[in-house]
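Lab notebook: predicted structure, single chain.

Context: the supervisor wants predicted structures on file for every construct in the current expression panel, including those that have not yet been purified. This is the next one on the list. No modifications to the sequence; it matches the entry in the shared construct table.
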Amino acid sequence: MQNTSNVTQFFLTAYSVNGNIRYLYFIISLVGYLLIIFANTVVITVITRNRKLHEPMYIFICNLALNGLYGSCAFFPQFIGNLLSEQPTISKIGCYIQIFSVHTYGLLEYSILALMAYDRYLSICHPLRYNSILTPSKLTQLLVFVYMYPVCIFSIHLCLTVRLPLCGSVIDKVYCDNWSVVKLSCVDITVNSIFGNFVTIILMVPPLVVVIFSYVRIFDVCLKATKEARAKALETCAPHLLTLTNYYIATFFEVTHHRFDVSKMPHVLRVFMSIDFLLLPPLLNPIIYGVKMQEIKKRTLQMFSAKTNSVDASQGKKQKKTCLSERR
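Prediction complete. Output recorded below exactly as produced.
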């Protein structure tokens, strides 16, 4: 067994990419990362700059975009750097930071999506009481709870991992996750396994219950409503349902990768399944809301058209000044 005092870094063995193909993966990953940063930053900027969008639904969308940036920044820089490395590694401290960031990103995504489902339930099922129920103070309390609840509980989970003495340093993934590190322990991991299942239940089941309850009530109201009201309600829910489906499918791939033997699958597919929840939701969420939500789409176009006009105006002034100087 490897001496625990020598484990100062972990070797990530899933980067089995050789030759020029790794440069292609590097370019694709870098472009994807830059697109994620750009798209989410645009959504955040549009919502924060326009006071008319300072409503619960748009505030939740803004938090979803912030969380997408958080998860991407926890994964992509290390991933992109390792694509060009002959021996992909990550420091022990860096690994624990990545574990915390990636897992809390995933848990926060579940919680924010549950809040958004609750918001849609209130707006459709209790439209007259919506503003009195979801007041600014109530909104702040919900957001603080949604952030602190998973962060505090997962912090305890991570502390149980950090205390373990390790007898290995090889992780068969492209990033650090909690279970991969726990499996390297020299001692019994029963406590970690039991508490891990407990954390999974208390952090993932309540948001799922909120989502199911909200949409059961929404569909019940839609069935009793007029055709116009039903179409409007479904149109309002469509972006959230797309986002929800996108994330649940992505996390399903990650759970499948952990729970089942996927060694017979092509290597590239296995890697994609393990990083899908870090790649597609942050990339597609701002696109979904930017296209489907008319207010965000309109404000985004206005923002870019205003910038274009200001650039054209400044160029026109420069040309005018040049012409005047030439005449003199």
